[in-house]
């Protein structure tokens, strides 16, 4: 899944973090919109989002959304948490219990995704679904013009 590729995700996370800091400083009274670097970060974010959506759409053309969505969510969230832990050291100021509860919540969500994905009916085709709601099944005939 190229849409969650490592390099693009890191550029996007870094750029979003820079935009977040710029907005915070602007609201505190130091105008950050006059610096060209802020606009570059905004352009990088927009470019990464467009590229990511393009590859996600190409993936959805090939695979079913029931397969793509859980895998995409799990990989993107896992690597984003890992990136934040490494690049920004967000866990350095938190207690062990806070980190453990956050990781337990994340593992619970991932476990739910695995359970939902593994219990779906993989052999149920669209044609079978169409037959189950077909008007011919209930004795209703369609009128011809």
Automatic annotation (TrEMBL):
It is found in: Cell membrane; Early endosome. The chain crosses the membrane at residues 36-56, 63-88, 94-116. One of its GO terms (cellular component) is early endosome. InterPro entries: Mg_trans_NIPA. Keywords: Cell membrane, Endosome, Ion transport, Magnesium, Membrane, Transmembrane, Transmembrane helix, Transport. One of its GO terms (molecular function) is magnesium ion transmembrane transporter activity. It comes from the Eukaryota. This is Probable magnesium transporter. It comes from Arachis duranensis (Wild peanut). The gene is LOC107493323.
